[in-house]
């Protein structure tokens, strides 16, 4: 089968403002290489998780997929269509209907003066769906039922601040689904919610995936929710995917030292990974993406770093075993 989303060698470089003197001295322009050659595929009704610490490029990748940013280089295909080629307002509007986003903080993405009814009617009006008020009302009630905000008539008149965090996020999901999208980019959709309701919201998203046939790009710093929610995981570090594969394989048999370090940092250890929790295989902070280390970009923090190799030569993402990709010179040897 064809993937729903295909990303090919995607790059996004942000120029760093140069001082006047640097310009006069003829110093070359510098860039933050936020996304630096990322490729992956997402298949229908799958959840593909992009996992990493802040600054790894996962949110920028999500914004590129949403077409909120234009790539410096590379291609994005949705259902075979080259997204980077969409130029006219009409084309972009049609794309925005197909690809919806759920944000970390539903509150900041909702107009506080809107009632829940208006929050859900807005996308219908923008995209001209539902000709009459009655038709739109039916769609709004259905969407609320789908996310278990029931009975809808008790909620449509409320304002966002009158809902709990979990309810608000469910309304945000309803707002994304009301347009019947192909693809949803969910950027940390549960990280601001109480731990006790995270699983509930993810469970709902999973259920809707089956019912509505949507496909998700799930962006998170949290490997434990990725393991639960995702079918595939790509671990990002400083703009690159360093490990990618089926969620179970990546979690149960992590190969890249960075993935192992992330797993070791999971507060509630994942039972079957206890053996690696004893390691403390990471040092220091994520370097600034404006100063990416030479060679393997993880080398200053890696306990296994081999001098003369890791600090000079850039490893490539290679298929370590079937469908399990790793970007590390010592993959399988450590
Ligand atoms: Fe560590 Fe070397 Fe592998 Fe990079 S290539 S992750 S420095 S062992």
From TrEMBL:
InterPro entries: AAA+_ATPase, ABC_transp_ATP-bind, ABC_transporter-like_ATP-bd, ABC_transporter-like_CS, Oligopep_ABC_C, P-loop_NTPase. GO terms for biological process: peptide transport; transmembrane transport. SUPFAM superfamilies: P-loop containing nucleoside triphosphate hydrolases (SSF52540). The keyword Transport applies. Keywords: ATP-binding, Nucleotide-binding, Transport. It comes from the Archaea. This is Peptide ABC transporter ATPase. Residues 5-263 form the ABC transporter domain. CDD domains: ABC_NikE_OppD_transporters (cd03257). One of its GO terms (molecular function) is ATP binding. It holds the Pfam family ABC_tran. The keyword ATP-binding applies.
């Amino acid at each position: 089968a064809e993937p729903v989303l295909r990303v090919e060698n995607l790059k996004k470089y942000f120029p760093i403002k140069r001082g006047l003197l640097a310009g006069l001295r003829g110093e070359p322009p510098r860039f933050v290489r936020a996304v630096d050659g990322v490729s992956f595929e997402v298949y229908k009704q799958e959840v593909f998780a992009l996992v990493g610490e802040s600054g790894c490029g996962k949110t920028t990748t999500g914004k590129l997929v949403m077409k909120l940013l234009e790539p410096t280089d590379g291609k994005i295909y949705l259902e075979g269509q080259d997204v980077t080629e969409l130029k006219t307002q009409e084309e972009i509007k049609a794309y925005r209907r197909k690809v919806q986003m759920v944000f970390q903080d539903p509150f900041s993405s909702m107009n506080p003066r809107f009632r829940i009814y208006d929050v859900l009617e807005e996308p219908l009006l923008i995209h001209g769906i539902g000709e009459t008020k009655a038709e739109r009302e039916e769609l709004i009630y259905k969407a609320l039922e789908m996310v278990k905000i029931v009975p809808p008539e008790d909620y449509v008149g409320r304002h966002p601040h009158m809902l709990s965090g979990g309810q608000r996020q469910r309304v945000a999901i309803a707002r994304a689904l009301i347009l019947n999208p192909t693809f949803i980019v969910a950027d940390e959709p549960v990280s601001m919610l109480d731990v006790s309701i995270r699983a509930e919201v993810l469970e709902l998203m999973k259920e809707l995936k089956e019912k509505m046939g949507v496909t998700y790009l799930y962006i998170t710093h949290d490997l434990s929710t990725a393991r639960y929610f995702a079918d595939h995981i790509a671990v990002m570090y400083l703009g690159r995917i360093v490990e990618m594969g089926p969620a179970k394989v990546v979690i149960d048999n992590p190969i890249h030292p960075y993935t192992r370090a992330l797993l070791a940092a999971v507060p509630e250890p994942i039972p079957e990974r206890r053996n690696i929790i004893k390691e403390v295989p990471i040092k220091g902070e994520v370097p600034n993406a404006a100063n990416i280390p030479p060679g393997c970009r993880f080398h200053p923090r890696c306990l296994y770093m081999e001098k003369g190799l890791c600090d000079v030569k850039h490893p490539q993402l290679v298929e370590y075993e079937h469908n399990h990709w790793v970007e590390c010179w010592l993959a399988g040897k450590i």
